[in-house]
Amino acid sequence: MQTVWSVRSFGAKITGVSHSRGMRLDHARNMLREPGFRSLSTIAGASGFADERNFYRVFRQEVGMTPSEFRAESA
């Protein structure tokens, strides 16, 4: 059974897994915004994803664009 976290400011409930995924994606987005090139593989690993393929899939599913597209729009 998953623990449910209550987020008072939004009045929403999210699971611990969703919270962890959100934190990892926030970290990845911050790294993608930083000047200087880092490979997607490096960012995936530093953000806690098992591999680049999993990172790409989750990022696109949650953010609505690929990590490369996000990087280009953030530049």
Strand content: 5-15%
Number of helices: 4
**CATH-defined superfamily:** Homeodomain-like
What value does the average pLDDT take? Answer: 85
State the CATH class: Mainly Alpha
| Helical fraction | 55-70%
Low-confidence stretches: 1-9
Judged by helices, strands and strand pairing, the structural class is mainly alpha
Q: Which CATH architecture?
A: Orthogonal Bundle
Helix and strand sequence? EEHHHH
Count of folded domains: 1
SS elements, strand count: 2
The radius of gyration is 13 Å
Largest sheet geometry: 2 strands, antiparallel
Distance between the first and last residues' Cα: 41 Å
Task: Give a quick set of tags describing it.
4 helices, 75 residues, disordered N terminus, two-stranded antiparallel ribbon, Arc Repressor Mutant, subunit A, mainly alpha, 60% helix
Task: Give a verbal description of the structure.
With 75 residues, this protein is mostly helical. The chain has a single domain (17-74), classed as Arc Repressor Mutant, subunit A, CATH 1.10.10.60. The protein has helices at residues 16-33, 40-46, 52-63, 67-74, and strands spanning 4-7, 12-15. Strand 1 (4-7) and strand 2 form a beta hairpin.
